[in-house]
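Record pair follows.
FIRST:
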Amino acid sequence: MSNSIGKPVMVIPGDEPPQMQGSAQLDRIKEYGNLTMYTDRPGSKEEQLRRVKDADIILNTRGAVKWGRAEMEQLPKLKLIATCSIGTDMIDLEAARDLGITVCNQPGRTAKLVAEHAFALMLAVAKRLAYQTSQLKRGVWAKMDNVYLQGKTLGVVGTGDTGAEMARLGNAFGMRVVAWTFNPNKERAKKLGVAYVPLDELLRESDVVSLHVRLSDESRHLIGKKELAMMKEGALLVNVARGEVVDTAALVEALNSGHLGGAGIDVFDKEPIGNDAPIVQCEQVVLTPHIAEVTPEGVE
């Protein structure tokens, strides 16, 4: 697991949008190995593989760079893939296990940061901050009701580290918190101060639905047209999980029809998202470019 001078070869195969570029943390890596960073995203699978063909370690800073069985089988030197994320949906974990490749992520390390951002998105949507700012910049003194959140129901979908922290914030704010997870149990419900309910019930009861599940075959488009239709008229949706957890076309339809009162979104199907994307054109949305954990503490 080393090159000619005894240190492992480490490669960041595509840091775009920028995450590790300019980070002081990169200096800490140099004593452990020889690092090469590509600041643009690989344009093809062939280019992706060419960049890491000599790598012992891949530092995957962006989830858009994916590693399936076909790619990993072509990298006999590869021993480790480390992600700068909680999620590992960009890596075929079963294939990595079969090939003896260790995968390291950041479980729990940024949970408080991401939950705080989700809470901020919820508040921003409820108080119409983006809409009112844009109106005032146009010289329009707009009258539109805000949403009062204390005493309302917050539905937390997924109660891992981030969802658990979102539930804590909701309880502290005076909201009633209900939750859904793939594996509910009474002990965890008591610890988190939530009531676990079926997903359909959560969607029907919640004034705000906040998404915190990992992306998997089970959770892809977990929130689709049918689920959005179940939500209360005027309810708010927050997504800091993964873009593909939601059927974006159905979400746009629900927003433009007025069925939903707004959405706060930090993650998208395709990143970076273009300014011509339908979700960007929706009026009652607050959008951030996948930066929930991007604070000095989170970067470190």
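SECOND:
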Amino acid sequence: MDGSRTRVSIAVALTVAVVVVDQAAKALAERARPTTPNPALAFNIATGPARVLAVFCILMLGLFLCVIGRWTVQIGISPAFLALIAGGGIGNTLDRVRLGAVRDFIPTPWAIVNVADIAVAAGVLALVVATIARVRSLRLASCRIALDLPTLRATIVRDNTI
């Protein structure tokens, strides 16, 4: 198996693992005490029928993975961060489809969250940090990232103007 297939396989396995752990944690939490149903998206920014929100989440996750995910991998950032985001998104979408709301059960000072929320937050934070580090390392090597929007390709090019 070549390197890119191995990375993709690991990312898929991590995505599945996040979904499984999230769903198991929610089931265990539900047995211990009732979880808090959360019918809205992202700190109540968006509300609406559960199925509509689920479709919206699937479309946004797909768009994110097709564009940002593709660019991220093309510039040499681990797909593991994308897997955390995808696994969390899928875990919460499963709740919306099956139960009409996401099950939250971990209290924090800001909100009540779940394993999927933590995975998404960790994935986004890691992706931002890794992207900043990658851009800095490319600058030090007199390179830059070129984005070709029509083909949705990101390439690393030697930049003689830096």
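COMMENT: Strands lie at 36-38, 102-104, 106-107, 112-113, 143-148, 153-158.
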